[in-house]
Write a structure and sequence with these properties.
This protein has 20 helices and 15 strands. It is an alpha+beta fold and about 450 residues long. The relative contact order is 0.18.
C-alpha cells in the first residue's frame, strides 16, 4: 500500500490557540467522546483504508489519527496520491467493486459518475441511526448549500438533483474560486487588480515589461476536468456559458454557443498573454508552487492557496498575497465563482461499513474540523460553527492574511455549483480540457468548439 504525503509534518500534534491558551488537538478531540451517545468502541480491532488526494485537507485529518485510533480502537491506513493519479485510481477501484478502499475523498462532480452504477454507499441510514451517529454530530451544522449539493437521486441511469434525494457524501472542506495577487508588486508597478479578461491581458502585458523575471498569471491547464472546474468554468458563467442546456425538451451542450465562442476567444487570449509555457502541464500543485516561490504575480484558483502561502515564513511571498473575486466578462454586472466540495464518501463495496462510518463521522466532526482549521490546514471549513468560532476568526483575520475573510464572504455569497448535475461529467469535461489546450496551441476557436460539442452530443 502507498502512504505518501508532502511536507513531512503529519506526525506532529496540532496546537491551537484558543482564548489565549494553548490546547492540543488531543484535548479538543477528547470532546468527541466526552458525552458520547454511541459506543465508539463498537468496532474496535477493525482496520480500514482511507484514500485521498495529497492535500492539506488530508494532512489535517492524518495529524489527528492517533486520537481517533485511541477513541475507537480502529486502525486507519491513509493512502494519499497525487491529483491525476488519485482520480484515475479512484475510478478503477470503485467501478471494479474493489473493497480495498473503505472511505474515499471525492468531489460532487466525480460522484455523479459513480452513484448510478452503485459504487457509493448512500449515507442517510447511517446519519439517522442513533447507534452509529452521536447525538452531538449535528449534520445540520454544515452549510445548507453544501448539504443540498451532495443530495440527489439516481433515475434511469441519470443524476437528478433535489431535496428528496439521498445523501452521498459528507462535506470535509470546500473552495470557492478567486483571483489571488501580489499586492506589493501591483502597488509597486501602479497596477489595479484586473476585473475582466481584457483588463487581465493588459495587466499581464504591463507586468512583462515591469517584472521580466516573473510569470504574470498561473492557472490550471492539464488535459483533465480539474483544469475546467476552477478558473475556466467560473469565468465562463459570467459570459453566459452553460455546460448543458435543455433544447426542445432534450439535453444538449451549450459549449458551441455564441457566448461560449466569446468566452473562449478571451480566455485563450489571456492564457497566451499571461500564462507560462508550462500551462498544458500545470495542475493545482504548480499553481501553489507559482505563488509560494514568488515566480507568479497572480493566480485564479481555489482561494485557500493564497492563504497557505501567506503564513509567515512559508513562502517567498508570505504576507503579500491578497484576494479578489475572479475576473468576469466585459459588461457583466457581477462575477461568478464555482464551488468545489472535498467530501468523504463510503465505498459501497467496503466490507467494514460500520467502522468506515465512525471514521467519516469523527473526521467531519466539529472538534476535528476546528482543529484542522486553526492549524491552517482545513482553511475553508464546511461547518457554520467553525466560522462562528473566535479561535478561527482571530487566526484567519491576522494581518498576514490580508483580506482573506472579507473576500471569502463576498465571493461565497455568490458562489454556486457551476456545472449541470449529470452522469458522464468526467468524459465531457475532459474533452473540454483537451479542446482548451488545442485552442491555446493555435486551433481556431469556433470550429474547435463545434467539434467539441458534437463529441459531447454523441455521448448524450
Amino acid at each position: 500500500m502507498r502512504r505518501t504525503t508532502r511536507g513531512g509534518n503529519l506526525k506532529r500534534g496540532l496546537k491551537l490557540v484558543l482564548g489565549g491558551a494553548v490546547i492540543t488537538a488531543a484535548a479538543l478531540v477528547a470532546g468527541v467522546a466526552g458525552a458520547a451517545s454511541i459506543d465508539w468502541k463498537q468496532f474496535q480491532g477493525t482496520s480500514i483504508t482511507w484514500a485521498y488526494d495529497i492535500h492539506p485537507y488530508a494532512d489535517a485529518v492524518v495529524a489527528q489519527l492517533p486520537e481517533f485510533e485511541k477513541l475507537t480502537g480502529i486502525k486507519v491506513t491513509p493512502e494519499l496520491y497525487p491529483d491525476d493519479a488519485y482520480w484515475s485510481k479512484l475510478t478503477i477501484q470503485l467501478t471494479t467493486k474493489s473493497p480495498a478502499w473503505d472511505v474515499i475523498g471525492i468531489g460532487i462532480q466525480p460522484a455523479w459518475d459513480l452513484t448510478p452504477g452503485g459504487s457509493l454507499e448512500p449515507l442517510d441510514g447511517y446519519i439517522k441511526n442513533p447507534k452509529l451517529t452521536d447525538s452531538d454530530y449535528d449534520y445540520g451544522d454544515f452549510f445548507p448549500a453544501l448539504r443540498k449539493a451532495l443530495t440527489w437521486k439516481n433515475k434511469d441511469g441519470q443524476v437528478v438533483a433535489g431535496d428528496d434525494g439521498q445523501i452521498w457524501a459528507i462535506p470535509h472542506g470546500f473552495e470557492n474560486i478567486q483571483l489571488m495577487y501580489r499586492k506589493d508588486i501591483l502597488a509597486k508597478d501602479g497596477l489595479k487588480v484586473p476585473e475582466t479578461l481584457p483588463e487581465m491581458i493588459a495587466t499581464c502585458t504591463a507586468l512583462k515589461k515591469a517584472e521580466p523575471g516573473v510569470t504574470p498569471l498561473v492557472v490550471r491547464g492539464v488535459r483533465f476536468w480539474s483544469s475546467i472546474h476552477t478558473a475556466a468554468i467560473s469565468i465562463a458563467k459570467s459570459y453566459g456559458v452553460s455546460d448543458f442546456v435543455v433544447k426542445d425538451g432534450k439535453l444538449d451542450t451549450g459549449l458551441d454557443s455564441p457566448q461560449s465562442v466569446a468566452f473562449h476567444t478571451d480566455y485563450v487570449a489571456m492564457i497566451k498573454a499571461c500564462a507560462p509555457s508550462s500551462f498544458a502541464n500545470d495542475n493545482w500543485y504548480q499553481v501553489v508552487d507559482g505563488l509560494s516561490s514568488g515566480r507568479a504575480v497572480m493566480a485564479i484558483d481555489s482561494n485557500m492557496f493564497g492563504f497557505w502561502n501567506d503564513v509567515p515564513g512559508k513562502a517567498a511571498a508570505s504576507g503579500q498575497i491578497a484576494f479578489a473575486p475572479p475576473p468576469r466578462a466585459p459588461g457583466a454586472k457581477s462575477f461568478d465563482s464555482n464551488i468545489w466540495i472535498w467530501s468523504l464518501a463510503m465505498n459501497a463495496a467496503s466490507q467494514k461499513k460500520g467502522a468506515a462510518w465512525l471514521f467519516m463521522q469523527w473526521a467531519t466532526s466539529k472538534e476535528v474540523d476546528l482543529a484542522g482549521a486553526v492549524a491552517g490546514k482545513l482553511v475553508n471549513s464546511p461547518r457554520a460553527s467553525t466560522w462562528d468560532n473566535k479561535a478561527w476568526i482571530d487566526y484567519a483575520t491576522k494581518a498576514e492574511f490580508n483580506n482573506f475573510v472579507p473576500t471569502f464572504k463576498t465571493v461565497q455569497a455568490q458562489a454556486a455549483l457551476a456545472f449541470t448535475p449529470r452522469y458522464g461529467f468526467g468524459e465531457a469535461m475532459n474533452a473540454w480540457a483537451v479542446s482548451m489546450q488545442q485552442m491555446v496551441n493555435g486551433a481556431p476557436v469556433e470550429p474547435t468548439l463545434k467539434a467539441l460539442a458534437e463529441q459531447i452530443r454523441g455521448s448524450l
